[in-house]
Amino acid sequence: MIKQEIFDEVQGLATLGRNISRHIWNNPELSGHEKASADYYRKLMAKEGFDIVDSKSLPTAFYAEYGEGHPVIAVVGEYDALPGLSQDACAERKPIEDGAPGHGCGHNLLGSAAAVAAIALKRFVEKNKVEGTIRFYGCPEEELLCGKVKMIAEGMFEGCDAALTWHPNDANLVHDSAYLANTAMKFFFSGRTSHAAFAPESGRSALDAVELMSVGVNYLREHVVDHTRIHYTTDSGGFAPNIVPDQASAWYFVRAPRIQDVKETAERVVKVAQGAAMMTETTVTVEQGYGCCEFKENNLFGNLIYANMIEADGPKYTQEELEFGATLQGTVDAGIVERANRLYGDEHAAMHMGVGERDLWKSCTMKASSDSGDVSYVMPTGLFTTACWPVGCSPHTWQTAAAAGTTIGEKGAHYAAKIMAGAGYDLIMKPELLSRISREFEERNDGSYAPMVGEK
Ligand SMILES: [Zn+2]
After folding, report:
1. CA of 201 to the centre of ligand 1 (A)
2. Domain 181-292 is of which CATH architecture?
3. What is the CATH number of domain 4-179+294-444?
4. Percent of the chain clearing pLDDT 70 (strictly above)
5. Does this model's pTM top 0.90?
6. In this predicted structure, what is the pLDDT of residue 1?
7. Biggest alpha carbon–alpha carbon distance for the chain
């Protein structure tokens, strides 16, 4: 058995990977509504000989399993799209359908690469009669940051030894740690309505409470740990200026580098809400939403992923692809492009090529959040990104939705499939390596993890 076998398996699955990615990109479904996408993957994996195990609580979640014994390797896939990001595969803003969803986060690529890596590993295990179990995880609701949290709470990730995951990005980078922990909260204020001019003295405005809460939170910002991010929207604030609003609500996200910081800051945000309620003589009800953890660092796993990024062949772009990339890049803020090029050490590149330095993740930790962080809390998890769109483009934009539907995105996904399959091979064939990675995981694990499933 030589390692090249696993890379050859992935190579042989290139067309399948492209077909999966195109199918999901052409049929975008929002978080919580990914029924057709989940069924598509179920059918695909069952046809390949995997057994399907459905979630008992989430109709769009499942895992597909093949093999026997340990190690049990989880390859994590996602397939949800984003609202309003319908976009054709071209370098100008052109929705396929106005207001419809689109794959601005490239989860069509994310899921297809995970499925291809799982299939390649399954075929390898089968042909060589190697002990080991491969699981492809069909994970919905990533954009709501809760699908995997729900799956973990249900016990669906139990029994695994290690997980492999990735995300489309503008660079080829390994991420030992990444993502900000996050929680969502809703605040419902209740006051007393009245005519705003005829009897203002008898009104107690719930909207005043929402506004005073945001003033308080904006003062709180100075006194929180570095890299905390707090964002909010006002869900409802009354119906007309001449009616004192007796109901108003706000929706908050609190993010920070560690889940413990999120919990502590969230408690303080609740106090600010209570203060706003007291000032306005209204009452407040807090709905605690789901929370997700930051990605837990594992340096040995990072080394393994990095070695496979070097070992696997990275994408080579045609002149046409590079020109498309440059045109798309020209539509985003030039300052971001310049900073990204400087960070990656490219003079001025449309696409990031090669592999970023081993420790580059320290200076460009992904500042968004992902429920993959919770997976890294329950088992050793390897995470990386590959270049699936031009340098400087940010996920959740029409530019990335466009790139995710082209051969540029598909080449990035193909590379990702090779990296995951290569790393999976190493985890299966080198038990000593896996046990060292597991030891590092245990050393960093203080046993305090509990999925934040929210409460009212
Ligand atoms: Zn994403």
Report:
1. 49
2. 2-Layer Sandwich (3.30)
3. 3.40.630.10
4. 99
5. yes
6. 67
7. 85
